[in-house]
Structure formats: C-alpha cells, structure tokens
Design brief:
The protein is an alpha/beta fold.
Length: 368
C-alpha cells in the first residue's frame, strides 16, 4: 500500500511539473501548436501551414524559407494535427485503394508508387482487397466511401460499385464515365516480346494466358497473337495454357506448364502472362528435365523485384508499376485540387513498356 501511494505521488508531481502558472499543460507537454511554432520563427501561421502540409501554394514559397520551417518543426518536435486540419478544411485527405489481392509483385509495386505520391502531398490511403469476390468488392468499396475517402484508385479491379467519387483505374480497360484508366501500351509490349524471341530464332512459341478474372488477360493474349501473326508465327492451340485459381504465387505457372508438357514438348520458347507464372514455369520445365534457356527460353511480364534474382534471371517485359501507381495518385490528387485550372484529364493515360533482357532467353540451339 505504501508503494502504491509513493507511485501515485510521483505521477502527480510529474503532472505538476507540466502545468504552467494558469494550471494548464505547458507547450512542452501538450506539444507545440502551429501558432506557437510560427511565432518562434517569425512567420505567419498560414505560411507555416502551407509548407508543412505541402499544399499547392507551397510551390510559391522560396526553398530557403521552406527549409527553415521544416528545420524548426524538427527541432521543436512539431507534427501537424491531422484531425484539426481535416476539420478546418472539411476534408479527410484520404484516398481509397481497391486491389484484387496483395501479391509479392504486381500489386505491391503499384501500392509503393501510390504511397510515395500520396504521402508527398500530405494524403493518407486506405487499402482493401476483394479477392475476386463481388460481394467483398461491394462491401469494401462501401466501407471506403463511408470512411469519407475523397477518391478511389482500383488495381486490376472491375468497377462494379456505385459512387460519385473520382476513380482512377490501374489496368481497368473499361471506358466508363467518371473513370480514368492508367494502362500499359500492350501492343508495344507484345511487339517487344515476340520480336525478342523471333530475333533469337524461335518460331515454336508456347503461351501462358492469364486467368479470366484479370483485366489484362485478354488484351495481352490478343496483342501477342497479333504480333506473332505479323511475323508469320502461328501459335497452335496445343501450345496455349491458361492460369487457373486465385493463388498469386508461382504455383499457378508451375501447374499450367505441367499441363502444357503433358500435351506437347514441341516448343522452344514460352511467353508467360506474368513474372510469377514465368518463375513457376521455369521450375516445372527444370523438373521435367528441360534446361532454361538451352532447351526452352522463358519470357516473363511485369519485371517484379524477384525477376532479376530468379535462377536463371528472368527476361521480361517491364511494366513501370511503381510509376503507374504514382501517375494514378498524382492524377487523382489533381482532380481533387481546387487549383487544377480546369485542366482536362484524358480518359486513358498510357504508359510504355520496356524489354529487360536477362538469362532466361537465348538463341535456339536445336532444330525447329
């Protein structure tokens, strides 16, 4: 009991130390207010607020002044009060992100770009996944709206929910009112991939088609067939397998290529739907006694982080996934900005792919 009394007295004494002469918490205890910080550095609260919240007006303030404000905030341990800012502006400064799922590659890289662009403008994002279930998509989209997000970014997700909020769709491929699409130039991507294999002497090419639920599956498949036909390459039905299941791991590619090998081995190159399936495909080929790239060249798509560290390192078509996330966010925030000067934002924003040549492709070494 005596120990308890001493402990209570210690807490009381500590609280007394934090009180000023009026019996209020001192600035060091409750944290510096914006006005107090502004007073310390001799600037107006408005100027300090603009810089610390990184609003559009911050561009008009000299860099020397901005550095001074940020340094003072750091020295005094000042942090902007999120709720106070939201109440003053009657805004949440939050965007919603709806993805199919969080894989180790595609979605994660886009989310990194979203976070980078959002945080640089003083925004926060809430992410939710629908796992390709319509009821979950409906529920989660409504949940974001109820939490007063100011706009929504979707990743490989059909727009099957109602909202008046601005929407940016990454890999949406649907022309819908109020929706801006960030899409890859798939025709160029197919040309790059097929021309790479063609230049290495490959004429018997197998394809892994994406799952039916993926927004990119059909357009990627169609453009690859078109690029192949342009070079006189006919891809036989027996050389085409489709990914199945919701598993975002290399396992789906492993299963698909085992199915392909049960049908035919009469191919020298394999163009996979994405890097994850390509990595699984390489494992299946190796377990079947085929060498990559000596017997079969394998070409991926996306250039996820793992691609360069696979064995052999993966030749792939790079989608600028991080940049796509940044572009989607920057475009959405431009829509939300009151100072966008009425700029017209096109319905489709196209980004360009790039061939990344590594060790999983090589010239044909056996007769076709």
């Amino acid at each position: 009991m005596k120990i308890l009394i001493c402990k209570t007295n210690q807490v009381q004494n500590k609280n007394d130390d934090n009180l000023n002469t009026n019996g209020e918490l001192s600035a060091s205890s409750r944290g510096l207010t914006l006005k107090e910080l502004a007073a310390k550095i001799g600037l107006s609260p408005g100027t300090v607020s603009v810089v610390l919240n990184n609003t559009n007006r911050a561009e008009t303030i000299p860099q020397k002044t901005k550095d001074r404000i940020k340094q003072a905030a750091k020295e005094h341990g000042y942090r902007p009060h999120y709720f106070a800012r939201s109440l003053r502006a009657n805004r949440s400064f939050t965007i919603g992100v709806i993805a199919a799922e969080l894989s180790d590659g595609y979605c994660a890289m886009i989310l990194n770009g979203i976070e980078s662009a959002a945080s640089s403008q003083g925004y926060f994002y809430l992410n939710t996944n629908h796992l390709h279930r319509q009821e979950l998509l409906t529920h989660n989209s409504q949940m974001l709206i109820e939490r007063q997000v100011e706009g929504i970014i979707t990743i490989d997700t059909p727009i099957r929910f109602e909202t008046n909020l601005p929407i940016i769709a990454v890999a949406g491929h649907e022309d819908l009112d109020g929706v801006t699409n960030v899409i890859l130039n798939h025709q160029t991507a197919a040309e790059l991939g097929i021309e790479h294999l063609y230049s290495l002497g490959h004429r018997k090419i197998a394809l892994i088609k994406g799952q039916e639920f993926s927004s990119d599956s059909q357009i990627r498949f169609d453009t690859i067939l078109k690029a192949s036909a342009k070079r006189g390459i006919k891809i036989d039905e027996s050389h085409i397998v489709q990914l199945e299941g919701l598993n975002p791991s290399p396992e789906v590619g492993f299963i698909a290529v085992n199915k392909l090998l049960s049908q035919t081995r009469d191919f020298t190159a394999l163009f996979a739907f994405n890097d994850m399936s390509a990595i699984g495909a390489i494992r299946a080929l190796q377990e079947a006694g085929l060498r990559v790239p000596d017997d079969v060249s394998v070409l991926g798509f996306d250039d996820i982080y793992f691609a360069a560290f696979n064995y052999p390192s993966l030749t792939t078509i790079r989608q600028p996934l991080f940049e796509m996330g940044e572009l989607a966010t920057q475009t959405l925030l431009k829509m939300l900005s009151k100072s966008n000067n009425g700029d017209v934002i096109p319905q489709n924003l196209t980004v360009e792919p790039k061939l990344i040549s590594r060790n999983s492709t090589a010239k044909v070494k056996r007769s076709e």
